[in-house]
Amino acid sequence: MALPGGRHLDSITLPGQRLHLMQVDSVQRWMEDLKLMTECECMCVLQAKPISLEEDAQGDLILAGGPGPGDPLQLLLKRGWVISTELRRIGQKLAQDRWARVHSMSVRLTCHARSMVSEYSAVSRNSSKEMGQIEKLLMEKCSELSAVTERCLQVENEHVLKSMKACVSETLSMLGQHFGQLLELALTREVQTESCSVTELECSGRISAYCNLCLLGSSNSPVSASQALVRKIDASDNIYTTESTTGNLFSLTQEGAPLCRIIAKEGGVVALFKICRQDTFRCLYPQALRTLASICCVEEGVHQLEKVDGVLCLADILTDDSHSEATRAEAAAVVAQVTSPHLPVTQHLSSFMESMEEIVTALIKLCQEASSGEVFLLASAALANITFFDTMACEMLLQLNAIRVLLEACSDKQRVDTPYTRDQIVTILANMSVLEQCASDIIQENGVQLIMGMLSEKPRSGTPAEVAACERVQQKAAVTLARLSRDPDVAREAVRLSCMSRLIELCRSPSERNSSDAVLVACLAALRRLAGVCPEGLQDSDFQQLVQPRLVDSFLLCSNMEESFV
Description:
- The chain has helices at 26-45, 57-62, 72-95, 99-123, 129-153, 158-193, 198-213, 224-235, 239-253, 257-265, 268-276, 285-295, 299-307, 310-319, 325-338, 350-369, 373-389, 392-399, 402-410, 419-432, 438-444, 447-454, 464-484, 488-496, 499-508, 517-533, 540-547, 551-559.
- Among the domains are: 72-193 and 201-217; 447-565, no CATH class.
- By secondary structure, it is mainly alpha-helical.
- Helix 8 (224-235) runs parallel beside helix 11, helix 22 (447-454) runs antiparallel to helix 23 and helix 25 runs antiparallel to helix 26.
- This is INSC spindle orientation adaptor protein.
- One of its GO terms (molecular function) is cytoskeletal anchor activity.
């Protein structure tokens, strides 16, 4: 999952990675696209023949209001955006069996593809036999798509049409692959010809994003921008060059998992850890570590980190107080990413076990000394993931008085100010609560009251991400309460604080739990555990409906409840 600013933490649900679209006025974009569509419709009527005899007439139409005709990258951006949109729309119409629209859009797609090929050939300084072959394959598939969709218009038998639909779908898929390969190859040559300036890298990211959106790109063929950047980082000993190049590499990581895989395979992890092992680049550690956290959202990145002893490097950074808080926070973000329970490869990080005690100790210290909510969030997220990683971590946390540190932080609004942070805290408490000795520490630090407050977690902004975070806080708070209530002292304290009343309210009122089934199940389990210790705290109706029946029957009863507005 992703943090604001592009960080990836799987224990946190935040808005996903952004697609970097071209930043232009919407009306201007519509007018430019209208010219493209109008030109394309005219070409369809004239059997795909250009309107004007002038060679640069089409280029003038495409690049109107934008860069001059000598800018092949911008040309690729414009045509690439139109073609990828057409491919997606054809797929949608095909799923709806709207064959007339599929055919007309296929003809239009052919026109766009032909225009892109001819226009790029006219302005590009690069051409090759390989590119010519891919162009030929692309146009053949375009013609094949137009022909087969035209035949589908004449077929009335549903069984025959169904078999032809599979053929159209396969052709469309192959066409998309050829289009993605052509874009990537053209981009490779343009970036190699130039010097990988920031503008061109932004363009490369957008084109790669178009390919990813339409499932066009091939993750096995390298993106030249990432290759060039990794080589530049690896070879540079200039701090300013390295800073600029690392920033550009981070921008590429924000385009999604496919590019992160390519960067990892091209040696991006190795190059970034090389930076983090040189004292001369200390001021670049935060930027390099932030980029590493992004790359390690994929298994290939974690594999590469393991190969270069990255965990040992992270442990050294976290335990070295001479590093800035920002550097140690970014190192914590990498730890959080590589220990994510959603990445199966993390369970095989043998090197992590060797350094786990040092890392856990350093993370607790970072939580205790955090000067901001973001630093605390990164450190606590790393600890939360580590408690999933190995049960021994919970015992370490107990010995390090982690419960006291975390519960004290909850009263500090500067460190704990969002449901995302409370999600990390309650995750740690829930995983630690399996230990018997945890209950006494919870009572000593007034932890039951804090858990009670988490059962009432409410979103402030109402965004989907924040609502989901509040649901997780409520669910994990109920789970923690259920586990801790094995201890009679905890159960009695929970009843004294009216936890049972709140649990009943969450079960019976869907709006209180945002209609979450996960919260409902957790609350029913906690209520039943408390009722086993203190049955006198329940009314007869609550006992008969929420405790006495089977759990599944109580769940069905509560999940089907409708609130009364009378």
